[in-house]
Amino acid sequence: MTTTLFENRYAIGPNEVKGFDTQQLRQAFLADNLMIANKVSWIYTHYERFMVGGAVPTSAPLALESVEALKSDTFLASRELGIINVGGEGTIEADGVKYSMAYKDSLYLGRGNKSVIFESKDAANPARYYLNSAPAHKEYANKKIALNEANQLNMGSLETANRRDINQTMINTVVQTCQLQMGITCLKPGSVWNTMPAHQHDRRNEVYFYFEVPESQAVCHFMGEPQETRHIWVHNEQAVISPPWSIHSGSGTQNYSFIWGMAGENLDYNDMDFHAPNELR
User: Fold this and answer.
1) Tens digit of pLDDT per residue, the chain (281 long)?
2) DSSP 14
3) Which of 111, 112, 126, 257 can pair with 186 through a Cys bridge, CB separation 3.0 to 4.6 Å?
4) CA-CA distance, 3 to 40, in Å (whole number)?
5) What is the pTM of this model?
6) How many other C-beta atoms are found inside a 10 Å radius of the C-beta of residue 121?
7) What is the domain-level CATH number for residue 201?
């Protein structure tokens, strides 16, 4: 019996989004149910063939299974995978090699890995593995990256309510990948704005996964073209799929963290087109 859930979402252009109501926006761009106990959940987007998912093993390990859309016997036959643990301690076994995964640890698995097993140390406090995957043209070595091994940028200020630490766990100065990039941004107490000034990068898509959001709080995620913005309210462990033509920014009702993941034809992290706050509409 399969333990994998799968959803396919097709690409949507900016002209279509202009006519969307709230429910249509949420159906197209919000991933609101990625972390399901005893399941591996996937959304296959048609932006850069990017996949976003979650794996929550509790009483038994979970295997990374292929899905029909990939037309391959194994999930990583022609893909790479980025994993970040946002739950309790666990282990991931890739082709016989075990990696211990603490909170906010990252793991890169390259193309060609045949067997991947997710496991939790304590079923009562399970690991919660956030997953990003993109097509890969070459095999690169598997690598675990602890949070203190990331390239860290300290940006923003309290005056503009966006003081934050950007932990680049999967960029080309830390680990070799084909096109996948990931990292963790943590806002300081008193700061609520992420990715401001807002930006676009037309050669890459991006997905924001929000976590460390208290149950009574929320984040308002902004998307759309700079002159035609839209918003989606998100809660803990929910993600927003951002097309290459869209900005991606947000403001919370208190500080929070999020994981950014992107893929495309350019591995230059700084390839961005910025839009000042007074230019947005």
Assistant:
1) 899 999 999 999 999 999 999 999 999 999 999 999 999 999 999 999 999 999 999 999 999 999 999 999 999 999 999 999 999 999 999 999 999 999 999 999 999 999 999 999 999 999 999 999 999 999 999 999 999 999 999 999 999 999 999 999 999 999 999 999 999 999 999 999 999 888 888 888 999 999 999 999 999 999 999 999 999 999 999 999 999 999 999 999 999 999 999 998 877 777 778 889 999 89
2) H
3) 257
4) 6
5) 0.97
6) 14
7) 2.60.120.10
Question: How far apart are the C-alpha atoms of 180 and 84, rounded to whole Å?
Answer: 13
Question: Binding site annotation covers 275?
Answer: no
What burial letters (b/e) apply to 35-48, b meaning 16+ CB within 10 Å?
Answer: beeebbbbbbbebb
Residue 167: C-alpha distances to residues 82, 192, 214, 243 (Å): 14, 17, 21, 22
Residue 201 among known ligand-binding residues: yes
Specify the 3-state DSSP secondary structure of 71. Answer: coil
Whose tokens are 């060609």? That residue is 112
| Domain count for the chain | 1
Determine the residue type at 145. I
